[in-house]
Amino acid sequence: MSNQKLLSELLLKFPFIRVKDVTDFMDTILLIIPMNKIVPLAASEYITKRQISLLVKKIEEQLNAKVLVSYSPFSDKENIEVALEALARSNFKKGKVSALNLSFSDSQHALLYTFCKNLTSSERDKWESLVSGMLKNFNIKITSFLYEVKNNPEPTMMMLLRAAKKCQPFDLQGLFNELDNGDYHIESLDWLNGKLDNLRKKGFLLRSHDGTYRMTLAGLEIVPVSKSSQSSDIERVLYLARKHL
Q1: pLDDT score of 86 more than 60
Q2: How far apart are CA 26 and CA 147, in angstroms?
Q3: Which residues, 6+ apart, have CB-to-CB distance to 204 below 8 Å?
Q4: So which domain of life are we looking at (predicted)?
Q5: Among 130, 151, 172, where does a domain finish?
Q6: Domain that holds residue 178
Q7: Same domain assignment for residues 177 and 146
């Protein structure tokens, strides 16, 4: 039996529960439950908190997926979420925030699920400030920001050196911008600064008093060179050409 059919059967008793698919988070299921359907005692066409807990457990066990529950108090919820999605698109690179969902405890308090990829700690701070500022206009307070995260791998030492060779001389922010292109996860400027300090200690980088980095001969020699279009030398030529256009 397919997962979709199995999920439909599990939700058969509760047709008012909506399931939201989240792009890039196929192992996560988001259930949206109207708050006016939640009652203290079991009744037809309603659901109790205990039934919700049992349903979540059953779905997680049978579909081997993580289940999140979002409570919806009013019809304007989706319009507010659309506005938040537009806020994310206008302030972050494409793909940083894949989806989001508000879950209300009452009409004025909610938690926000944010499905994100490679979102740095400073970007999270910015996002929380933007969301809180916008929802203040709706008289809604976010009690908790919950992040569902899928990150690309962090760059290896060799990838850091290739990027350094490509764009030297560079400062910390410049290298961060070069690496923050969707291929790698860079947690923060502090994280990157620590990695560059390690490369300096190994003798692969030099840093001047103004914070500018350059590679040493040892650093240049350790980066492989080939005749392919992906070679570090060709990457640098193309980078310099684009920089001076």
Answers
A1: yes
A2: 15
A3: 161, 215, 216, 218, 219, 222
A4: Bacteria
A5: 151
A6: 157-243
A7: no
